[in-house]
Amino acid sequence: MLGPKVYIHFPGTAREALDFYQQIFGGELALYTLEEFNRTDGDPQGIAHGELTGQVCLGGADASAMDRPLRVEGMMLSLLGTAQPEVLHQWFDKLSAGGEVIDPLSDKPWGAVDGQVRDRYGVHWLIGYEPEKTE
């Protein structure tokens, strides 16, 4: 992958969160514990590194004492046009479960379909697409 990849420090919920994202987006998930990395700075079964690869790529770990856990302000992850409209609607609905719909996924005055959701782990998502033009 060229360019930045999102890497999230979760407040002890990395395994649960990354499993949740894999259930939504599919792809391959690799999880490595602190014990597997020979680290002693937390719960041995805590996640030292996790990576979801596929159509949506995310990395993450449980925040250590030296890390600040996720707190999102002024930023969102954009999935604009990254999949077919029906898939984007499914992703939006699944990310909404246990989260907060900020702006429903709907037709907008400028001609696009988009919406925003903050999922149960505090990640803010922008999801949408440009509808096919009919002549």
From TrEMBL:
Residues 14-125 form the Glyoxalase/fosfomycin resistance/dioxygenase domain. This is VOC family protein. It comes from Glutamicibacter mishrai. It comes from the Bacteria. Pfam families: Glyoxalase.
